[in-house]
Amino acid sequence: MSFPNWLKKNKAAVIAIALTLCFAVANSILLLKDFYYLSLLPLAGLVLLLFITKFETGLLCMALLTPFAIDMALFPKMELSMPVEPMMILFTLMFFFRVLASRSYDLRLLRHPVSIALLASLAWMLITSCTSSIPLVSFKYLLARLWFVVPFFFAAAQIFRDKSRIRQFFWCYAIGLIAVVAIATAKTVGNFSDLQTLHRVMKPFYNDHTAYGCVIALFLPAGFYFIFSRNSKGWARLFFLAIFALLVVGLFFSYCRAAWLSVLGAIGVYVLIRMGMKVKWMALFFALGVGLFFTYQSDVIYKLGKNHQDSSYDLQGQIKSISNISTDASNLERLNRWASAFRMWKEDPILGCGPGTYQFLYASYQRSYQLSTISTNAGNLGNAHSEYIGPMTEQGVPGVALVICVFMTTFATGVRVYRTAKDKVTANMALAFTLSLLTYYIHGFFNNFLDTDKLSVPFWAFTAIIVALDVYSEKRSPEEPEPHGEAPRPTSSAEDASKQASIK
What we know:
Layout: H1 3-9, H2 11-32, H3 41-53, H4 55-65, E1 70-75, E2 78-82, H5 84-102, H6 107-110, H7 113-130, H8 135-159, H9 163-188, H10 195-198, H11 209-228, H12 235-253, H13 257-274, H14 279-295, H15 297-304, H16 315-320, H17 329-347, H18 358-361, H19 389-420, H20 424-443, H21 453-472, H22 493-503
Antiparallel strand pairs: 1-2
Helix pairs in contact: 3-4, 3-5, 4-5, 4-9, 5-8, 7-8, 7-19, 8-21, 9-11, 9-12, 11-12, 11-13, 11-20, 11-21, 13-20, 17-19, 19-20, 19-21, 20-21
């Protein structure tokens, strides 16, 4: 065969080799000239090609890579989680381009109560960014929230119309997480008596043990569901069971008390849901408990102050230290951050100080008698340590009200899908992911991580799963038995008519 004929027959291979050599030469020159970031352009081109040709696969790739992402300062005073945050930015731009070009986005997703609450929260965040004490910080914070929410909620909700994609997304992130858990657990061996070392074994993948424990707790309820789903059989079920067991081990050795409490809380709510309790009664009992706490807070705080058990590698000691507000440094610092946040909020209860600005402003609001051994004025040890107090301080009362609205609407939607879905798989899947999200809602009282990719990716994706299951699942009529074996309660003819109207 002559060379021209061979070249014509292998044209695609020759072009691929030529492009590869060009990229290699270009990268070598850029590296020699110290243009490190420009050398990533060929890789960016490949990622862009992936998003253009395999849009859904791109979402799964980001989920797989997120547990391994590491914060890097690419520009002065600006860190990005590499490599996933640049991919999220590119994915967000690609999503907007696809929607504007094809005009094919499902408007039922945008009209869903969860989407409306989320859009209202983003709109209020934009308003408070304009009135922020440090506008540049607030607008950076808003942009980061957009490239978390757009790919993993608005784009994912439409992708999750196919239930197989839900399973694929869950296991993509879970596989990455399991690898990190295995590495952290291996580091734990031989250091059981050194609590400070145990709090650092998950680095550099997770910044501290609280975020690490939180994400493991988030995956436990849904992971338990996949073990016993009808698609998991034989060796696959044993494999999923082994992964679940490793997650439980990781949760235990995270020594994150808030994560432990969140899982116990989710189990308790699961029992209430299975008993048939309505969401409004759950909310009422919770509000009653909060009211009783504030009514008798003096007595409660006095009794808690008598507990001197500090954090410990011993399980019993670690559990006892949860209520220690007299000597435990972690608890004292959390109370210090909350007290500072309330003082800041009182200065502007409607607009707040601006999204993302708390950590740069709270130092002057601290009081010497509330400082702990780990207190700092540098603003380098995190935020308000609450998913509710933080937004209240930075975005005022409307900000925290919208956050609670997003959480409560998602929870109510998940329970409703569980009770009305015609398909048993859909019903149980909705319940599993609702309980997974509930672990974060509970954990949110003690920490906030939605400004990080590690928690935002699964959190908003799980929220999108609940919305997708609600929009795309077939609902049963009131006369049909519930798919999980519970008989419907007797209803009057008036109730039947109103329910039929609401279903339609």
